[in-house]
Amino acid sequence: MNQFKRRLIFERLRAANPAPRTELQYTSPFELLVAVILSAQATDKGVNKATASLFPIANAPAAMLALGEEGLKGHIRTLGLFNAKAANIIKTCALLLEHHGGEVPHDRVALEALPGVGRKTANVILNTAFGEPTLAVDTHIFRVANRTGLAIGKNPLEVEQKLIRFIPKEFLRDAHHWLILHGRYVCVARRPHCWECLIQDLCDYREKTAI
Q: Which CATH code is given to the segment(s) 3-20+134-196?
């Protein structure tokens, strides 16, 4: 795919959704951090249901620590891997208080040093909470990038690096959300909805599906 097509793709995505945002519900960088940790192997809808009861009583590191690991589990046990997630969140809260004054750090190295936070989670925080032009390549973005020809790669890091290089700078801040939403609702895994795709004529995928 050439750069002209890439630009057209993001121009259309922007025109259709000028102000994209995550479907996770949060009101602060800390709430977003917790929500993203919880989102591993879980749907945003499931996470939002869990945090609807959690955040009113524990929306800061000190309050989460006061709730404790067992108390936290009571709110998130409907989510996959809830035992490990509860342990990681409590450890993360202790580190935030000890090393960052209770604030979520605006720094990749510091973020990735937190339990339960890998590169993908760090990228989500840097992009969504702090407006950095990063991309967290999840299964949706990985699929869309490879299927459309936007950025072909064998692993998420390769795709991430190519997207950062290929996407015009003016679109980088919002590209993460556009691509996730496109993969979640249109360019789905088993049978992409090519018949309703606003970039189908620009996409390199040959096996276009019909209604």
A: 1.10.1670.10
